[in-house]
Write a structure and sequence with these properties.
374 residues, mainly alpha, 20 helices, globular
């Protein structure tokens, strides 16, 4: 009801209605259950009351309603960091819950809601990793340790979303289910093969599993996206966060599988990924093609996360191509920065025009389901 009262007070302040009319309308509208409709926190509710998406930005969720949100968020970060350093970690968890009750459930502040969701994730991650690291039976066995680390996230995020209805928490809950699925697959594979580190022992199969999982996450994100092509409800916010997590997962799982890398003994996917674009000329071209295809997908579905996710790989692949072209090392760094910056500016400035150029060449049925052209 606070949002309804705020709206009526604003209408009175702008002279649309008088103050006395605002006071009489409040109980009347509340009795008609209009106030309940205005504070509906379901996925079909508007992203922000009275705040439509500007033409130039249709995908980002609303974070800030004013500097008040920024100030509160700064306070939350400083307080939680301080508590983390001086108190028991369970005190930090209690503080997260109390702050969520006040700032998210009662005041419904968007930016602090994101901040507290991230804080919860950090708390759960630190807690389970500390437990696994202190337990040799888990730390020495990747397949078991991974499933122990992944297991607490879906439950904690499901509870957080059930209580506070933060779109980010729902997106992270869904993404954590894919993480738990991966951990379960590796656990089963380890049990069948007798391996304690399936990714290191079976790299190609691991890349295929990662790619399939990333495609599943992408399909789920698109389901939320296509259910709200105008991007006016909170379904679009959930899709935004899912795409933000899915884009790098899909990009790098595709690159790893395409290059058919084998993990070094005792190494990890990420250690080898750094060296990928500095391989042969053919490998650099492969990385570049994958990045460009991902950017094309981002343009079609109107999600910039698919562009930003590939910038690092674009820079590394470009550097490798320039190296194979015998360019001087002192020039490569500047050339790479110039090329990547130019790509970002061209895509960023011409986003709407590029989308129209590409989407209008697609079948009419596909165009009708995609986010609207601006």
């Amino acid at each position: 009801m606070s949002e309804l009262k705020m709206a009526l007070d604003e209408a009175a302040g702008e002279g649309i209605i008088s103050s006395s009319q605002a006071e009489r309308l409040l109980p009347y509208l509340t009795g008609k259950n209009i106030g309940a409709l205005s504070v509906d926190r379901g996925l079909s509710a508007p992203r922000s009351l009275g705040d439509s998406n500007p033409v130039e930005d249709t995908e980002a969720p609303r974070f800030v309603r004013g500097f008040h949100d920024v100030l509160i968020t700064i306070g939350v970060v400083v307080l939680l960091v301080g508590l983390w350093g001086v108190a028991n970690r369970y005190v930090s968890l209690l503080a997260i819950v109390i702050l969520a009750e006040i700032l998210v459930r009662r005041q419904r502040l968007a930016l602090p809601a994101v901040d507290l969701t991230v804080a919860l994730i950090a708390w759960v991650f630190h807690t389970v990793v500390t437990y696994v690291a202190s337990t040799p039976a888990l730390s020495n066995n990747f397949t078991i340790g991974a499933i122990v680390i992944a297991a607490p996230f879906p439950l904690s995020l499901a509870l957080f979303y059930w209580r506070y209805r933060v779109p980010l928490s729902l997106a992270l809950f869904l993404f954590s289910l894919f993480g738990l699925f991966l951990a379960t697959v590796f656990y089963v594979a380890g049990t069948v093969t007798g391996s304690t580190n399936v990714p290191a022992d079976y790299p190609i199969q691991t890349f295929m599993i990662l790619l399939v999982t990333a495609l599943g996450s992408f399909a789920l994100a698109m389901r939320f996206d296509l259910s709200d092509p105008q991007r006016v409800t909170r379904r679009s916010d959930v899709a935004f966060w899912l795409h933000l997590a899915t884009a790098p997962a899909l990009l790098y799982s595709t690159i790893l599988l395409a290059l058919r890398l084998e993990l070094a003994s005792g190494g990890t996917v990420f250690n080898n990924l750094i060296d990928v674009p500095f391989g042969s000329y053919q490998q650099a071209v492969t990385v570049l093609v994958v990045v460009l295809v991902m950017m094309l997908i981002g343009l079609v579905i109107d999600r910039r996360a698919f562009v930003t996710a590939g910038l690092v790989s674009l820079g590394l692949a470009t550097a490798a191509l320039l190296t194979h072209s015998n360019a001087g090392f002192d020039k490569i760094a500047f050339l790479v920065l110039m090329i990547v910056g130019l790509v970002v500016l061209v895509i960023g400035i011409g986003w709407a025009d590029l989308r129209r150029l590409i989407v209008r060449r697609l079948p009419a049925g596909m165009q009708a389901r995609l986010p609207a052209l601006r």
